[in-house]
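The following record pairs a protein chain with its ligand, NAI.
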Amino acid sequence: MEGKVVLITGGAGGIGMATAQLFLDNGAKVALVDINEAALEQAKAALKGTSDDVTVIQADVTKEADVENYVKQTVDTFRKIDVFFNNAGINGPAREMTDLEKETFDTIMSINTTGVFLGMKHVIRQMKTQGYGSIINTASNAAYIGSPGMAGYIASKHAVAGLTKTAALEAAGSNIRVNAVAPAAIDTQMLVDIQNNLSPGQPDVSGEAIKQGIPFRRFGAPQEVAEIVLFLASDKASFVTGSLYNVDGGMQAD
Ligand code: NAI
C-alpha cells in the first residue's frame, strides 16, 4: 500500500477508523469522510502516522454536491484515489414495518444505499480517468437475511449487494474491481446502539443474547473487518470482483 491513496466514508466511525489505521500502517495516505466534523478531528488526532498522510473532509454522503466535493478534495490533496472504502451507514430504530414512519425508512435508505451509489458514481468516474482502482462497499449479513424490526437496514444492505455486483460488471473493462464486506456484530458504536434498541439501558443483556447467536460466541473487532478490506484493496485480490466477503464469526453459515 506504499504511496496508495485510500478514501474512506464513515471514516470517523469504528470500522472506518480501524481501516484507516491499518492502511496507514501499510504505507498508504488516507482521506476520511464523515458527517460528524468533531469526530473527524478526533479521528485525525488519534490516528498514528504522519499528519501529512491524513486529510479529513466533512460531508453528507446523501448529498451529491458533497460527494463530488469529497472526491475533488481527495484528488486535489493526494492526486488520485487508488482505493475507495464506501462504508458510511446507520442502523436506525428497531420497529416493525407497520409502525415504521416513511421518513425513517427513507433516511436509512438514503445514507446506506443512495450514499453508496453516489460514492461509486463519482469515484468510478475518477478511477476511469486513472485507469485503475479498487472499491470496497460495506454491506452486512443484513444483505442476505430478513430481520424483524429492521426493514430499512435490511433493504438498504440488500441494495448494497446489488449495487456492488452491478458496479463490478460495469467497471470490469476499466481495470476497476468492486467488492463488498459483509460484517456482523462488530464492536462499534453502532452495535452498542443496536443493543440499547433491544434492551434499553441494559446493552449487556441483549449483547449476551447476540453472542449466543454467533458461532464464535464473541463480537468481532473493527480490525478484523479492516484486514479483509486491505486484502480486497490489494493486488492479492486481482481476480476478485463482484464478491461479498463475510466477516461474521460464522453467522452466515449457521
Ligand atoms: P459507526 O457508527 O461507528 O460508524 C458509522 C459512521 O458513519 C459514523 O462515524 C457516522 O458519523 C458516519 N455517517 C453516518 N451518516 C453519515 C452521512 N450521512 N454522511 C457521512 N457519514 C455518515 O458504525 P460502524 O460499525 O463503524 O459502521 C460502519 C459500516 O459498517 C456501516 O455501513 C454499517 O452498516 C456497517 N456494519 C456494521 C456492523 C456492526 O456490527 N458494527 C455490522 C454490519 C455492517
